Amino acid sequence: MTPILTVENLIKTYPAFRLGPVSFEVKAGSIMGFIGRNGAGKTTTLKSILNIVHPDSGSIRYFGHELPGNERVVKQRIGFAGGAVDYYPRKKISDIIAVTRNFYDNWDDVAYRKYMDIFSIDPQKTPRELSEGMKVKLNLVIALSHKAELLILDEPTSGLDPISREELLEIFTALKERGVAILFSTHITSDLDKCADHITYIRKGGIVASDTMESFISCHRIHGEGSNLEEIMLCCEKEDYREKFAE
After folding, report:
1. In this model, does residue 238 exceed pLDDT 80?
2. pLDDT per residue over 6-17, tens digit each?
3. Residue range of the domain that includes 101
4. How confident is the model at residue 18 (pLDDT cuts 50, 70, 90)?
């Protein structure tokens, strides 16, 4: 089966930071957790694969097709949510959606109303009347309402209360069972412990590992330490500091 997303040897260089080479793939019906500490390169990677940032080199393919030259078609089939987004603050949500839906050929009003109800968002409110957590939910509603085959999520549970986070993870699991792929970048690794079946770990701009959850945990314990993602990340970073101080 052709992966939904394939990233090969992606490189982006800034004066004080170099991303890459980054390679991984996301298959249909899977949830890929994308983890790493602040500044490791997670957001730069996501922006690069969405063509928000232009990489220096590398290949990005969606559904077997190169992103350059196919961007409009690709973005009809994927959804992106990157935490809270600033919309027109005084416009009603219903008016914002009336415009937004026109950008998507497969916009699904039934799905839109379903997720608005699940997240308890009043379409007659304006964005300025929403909490930061509710703005995150609104962004997710839009991503979920046009039959996306791949969701790319950058800290989607940031600002959500524990109950809302749990509801969202249940939705992700249900989408996975329907064949939707999810690339899920987050610092809340306990969320990934509950729903992810693959993990990609980035550190200092490079991919440390990209594997199934089971294999990742099994292979990346250090000195027998680490039974979940958070413990493994802590062990890896501590080991890195031990090596630095030993030099």
Report:
1. no
2. 999 999 999 999
3. 5-246
4. very high
Contacts of 78 (CB under 8 A, 6+ apart): 62, 148, 149, 150, 151, 152
| Backbone torsion region of residue 120, taken as left when φ is above 0, otherwise alpha when ψ lies between -120 and 50, otherwise beta | left
Domain count, the chain: 1
The CATH number assigned to the domain holding 27 equals 3.40.50.300
pLDDT tens digit string along 137-190? 898 899 899 999 999 999 888 778 888 888 889 999 999 999 999 999 998 899
38-63 per-position pLDDT tens digit: 899 999 999 999 999 999 999 999 99
Query: What is the structure's pLDDT at 247?
Result: 46
The answer to whether residues 119 and 140 touch, using CB atoms and an 8 Å cutoff, is yes
In sequence order, what are the residues at sequence separation of 6 or more whose Cβ sits closer than 8 angstroms to the Cβ of residue 234? 226
> Under 8 Å CB-to-CB from 210, ≥6 apart: which residues?
23, 24, 25, 198, 199, 200, 201
Q: In terms of DSSP bridges, do strands 5-14 and 17-26 run parallel, antiparallel, or are they unpaired?
A: antiparallel
pTM for the predicted model, two decimal places: 0.89
3-state SS of the chain? Answer: CCCCEEEEEEEEEECCEEEEEEEEEECCCCEEEEECCCCCCHHHHHHHHCCCCCCCEEEEEECCEECCCCHHHHHHHEEEECCCCCCCCCCCHHHHHHHHHHHCCCCCHHHHHHHHHHCCCCCCCCHHHCCHHHHHHHHHHHHHCCCCCEEEEECCCCCCCHHHHHHHHHHHHHHHHCCCEEEEECCCHHHHHHHCCEEEEEECCEEEEEEEHHHHHHHCCECCECCCHHHHHHHHHHHHHHHHHHC
